[in-house]
Amino acid sequence: MTVTGNYPLVSAIVSIYNSEKFVRGKIEDLLNQTIFDRLEIIIVNSGSTQNEDSVIKEYMAKYSNIKYIRTEERETVYKAWNRGIRIATGKYITNANTDDRLKNDAFQILANELNRNSNIALVHADMYESNIPNLTFDEIQNGKIKIIPLFDYLVQLDRCLVYSQPMWRNSLHTTDNIWFKDELKICGDHDFEIKISQKYKIKHLPIVLGVFYVDKKKSNISLNNLKVVEQEKTDMTKEYIIDYVNSLDETALMILKSKFELSTKIPIIFLRGKNIVQIKINPRIHRFTHEFVYYVTALIHDRLGEKDKAIRCCKKLLKNKNSKRVSELMQCLVSTEK
After folding, report:
1. Ranges in the chain, pLDDT < 50
2. Looking at residue 290, what is its pLDDT?
3. Quick one: three-class SS letters along the chain?
């Protein structure tokens, strides 16, 4: 199916910071998109200390559909994306990370999916992983595929289910006023997608449309300090999880309790091993982290007025793993029990 509509169809937001070795390859990657003639490229230079300017201006002299913003100070990637989105005129938006690469018809496939399905707000696909910088999609050979679990709202509260190359409707910003949280450093896209899925559908295409670059030295912001990533994720999802548990009717609450409470009775070391085995058998099925299972179970006990069980659940988890939100919940339970 051929993409139809008025130009521009897609606005690609490219946030750069010290990305000189990637920026030319990124722009060339976008130039090679089959819908480049209907693509708007918005580059946001977030206070980079390298010389991306000369490369960008070289391309701007040749192509009128490239817009360029430069800030004097470094911003979070999400603040940079919001800045770019505010001047975007495309029907659809996508973030185009400087070190990632795309299949040449990736934008066309994603845009076609949104065109065909008015009830879908965001679409995304599988991708290869590569530790070779600037490796194009056509150059990758037998790449490792980043497997994405099937979508479920509760699963999304435990982990991000949309990876680095989604496409979504501009109307989410202009009509629904859903934006990225400027202050988040790593999990802003996860937060954004949770907000979307509270109101609209998100669709995953089980086809490979891109390459996700993983630096061997773990320079990727989402990989260089996993403890920081985990903490921001648990802090960010805390209120969403509480709201979810409180929103369940009695039947749904008891079903979830039955499902999760059983796992809290299994020693954590065995639960961890069970999850590893099951993920290998079917990587599309998400296995909840034990911290998440214990936190949700404690919240359920609390809602049912079973504070003693909630406290015991928290204590059991904290003997094996540090968890800020579980610790805070236990302190709250203990104080209200007195």
Report:
1. 1-4
2. 86
3. CCCCCCCCCEEEEEEECCCHHHHHHHHHHHHCCCCHHHEEEEEEEECCCCCHHHHHHHHHCCCCCEEEEEECCCCCHHHHHHHHHCCCCCCEEEECCCCCEECCCHHHHHHHHHHHCCCEEEEEEEEEEECCCCCCCCCCCCCEEECCCCCCHHHHHHCCCCCCCCEEECHHHHCCCCCCCCCCCCCHHHHHHHHHHCCCEEEEEEEEEEEEECCCCCCCCCCCCHHHHHHHHHHHHHHHHHHHHHHCCHHHHHHHHHHHHHHHCCCHHHHHHHHHHHHHHCCCCCCCCHHHHHHHHHHHHHHCCCHHHHHHHHHHHHCCCCCHHHHHHHHHHHHHHC
